[in-house]
Design goal:
The chain is of the alpha/beta class and 391 residues long. The chain has 14 helices and 15 strands. The protein folds into two domains: 2-174, Glycogen Phosphorylase B (Rossmann fold, 3-Layer(aba) Sandwich); 187-371, 3-Layer(aba) Sandwich (Rossmann fold), CATH 3.40.50.
Length: 391
């Protein structure tokens, strides 16, 4: 039995992060049964409950485990007592570099030389990197790359970031996000949820939204405050209800986003036409299944866009993260985005209405591209297996 340590955001609070871990494990299970996956996490119970059907060993990152989240003995042991380390998601950036409750790069870079000494490779697995805006971040990232025989990224921006910073690096392969391979639940289970939440009863259709608690703080553009942002989202929902006679479904993919979502709903004049579902109640597979039923979707969280693409629902990015625009570009939907600088009821309603009018052709054109991206994501298993079997 071989061991692989998976580093990512595996607390269970974010449906996108859960989908990355879940699909990675599912993809490996299709080809191998000889690997134990060590998973550092803030919630060992979540990992056991959600992924216990795989051979997983959750490693606690709480203070009583001698850890300050990403900094401490558990992460050191997870990285140095294993055959290989996989870095997933977008956990390497230099924002709040010295805060272990936010930043992973400093801790991983601190322990990377020990991996190098023990000849434990660190492989980037369908991941992203960045932003890296400071010299301390560049130095730390180089320490991780020095131990890496392969970088498998999910976007062009990561490759560009590494090259633009003149970092020494191994082969860089561009594949796709693990979450693209999310499987939806059975029709019976979906129908149970739909009945429970009273969804999709309007024959005119349903349009989806997703917002997040950061709003645009990540990109630090500061172009909207929270109240004005909620007014734009609510006003757009109202305009779509009036123009198209559709219902609205807000999908919450990160538990912390529920508050701002409800603030948006409270500003609507048609609250009876709006429903909210979230990952506090439903799995990432169930949320993806519900997104397969909406006509079009507009969201801030990248993984709601990925979930939509996985099930053929055209999606619009409200650009808070560069990775959102980058993802849509890879599947031929790059024009379906709106920047915060342009965000208004009129502009957002216009692009969503246009997307709704073209939804059938967009879904048809998107489908073959998405299928290729799904295959790329799964192909990463073979590349990692070759390295693992050579150790």
């Amino acid at each position: 039995m071989k061991s692989i340590t998976i580093l990512g955001n595996n607390s269970g609070r974010n449906a996108g992060d859960n989908a990355i871990l879940g699909n990675l494990l599912d993809d490996f299970a299709l080809k191998r049964s000889d690997i134990e996956f060590k998973i550092p996490t803030l919630s060992t119970n979540f990992v056991k409950k959600s992924f216990g059907h795989h051979l997983v060993k959750p490693i606690g990152l709480m203070p009583w485990n001698l850890a300050l989240k990403n900094l401490g003995w558990p992460l050191f042991r997870a990285m140095t007592d294993t055959k290989m380390v996989l870095i997933t998601d977008n956990i390497l950036f230099d924002r709040k570099f010295h805060n272990p409750f936010v930043n992973n790069l400093k801790s991983i870079a601190l322990f990377a030389p020990f991996c190098k000494k023990k000849k434990i490779p660190i492989v980037f697995y369908n991941s992203s990197i960045g932003p890296i805006d400071h010299e301390v971040g560049r130095v730390a990232l180089q320490k991780v790359l020095d131990v890496s025989p392969l970088v498998i990224t999910r976007d062009e921006q990561t490759k560009k970031l590494i090259e633009d910073n003149n970092l020494s690096h191994p082969e860089i392969v561009i594949h796709a996000d693990c979450a693209l391979n999310t499987q939806v639940p059975s029709p019976q289970r979906l129908n149970e949820i739909i009945a429970k939440e009273s969804l999709f009863s309007n024959t005119k259709g349903t349009i989806g939204f997703n917002v997040n608690a950061y709003i645009d703080n990540w990109s630090e553009t500061g172009t909207l405050n929270r109240e004005n942002f909620c007014a734009v989202i609510a006003g757009t929902a109202d305009d779509l209800i009036e123009k198209l006679d559709v219902d609205i479904l807000f999908t919450v993919s990160q538990i912390m986003d529920m508050k701002v979502t409800l603030e948006c709903v409270q500003q609507s004049r048609y609250q009876s036409r709006i429903k909210v579902v979230g990952n506090c109640d439903y799995t990432y597979q169930e949320l993806t299944g519900l997104l397969s039923k909406v006509d079009v979707h507009a969201g801030l969280r990248t993984h709601t866009l990925i979930f939509c693409s996985a099930v053929g629902t055209p999606a619009i990015s409200i650009n808070a993260y560069p990775k959102s625009a980058g993802f849509l570009k890879t599947i031929g939907m790059g024009d379906w985005a709106i920047d915060f600088a342009d965000l208004s009821i009129e502009n957002l309603s216009t692009i969503m209405t246009k997307c709704w009018e073209e939804r059938h052709s967009l879904a048809k054109n998107m489908a073959p591209v998405v299928e290729l991206e799904k295959k790329k994501s799964r192909d990463s298993v073979d590349m990692v297996s070759k390295i693992l079997d050579s150790l």
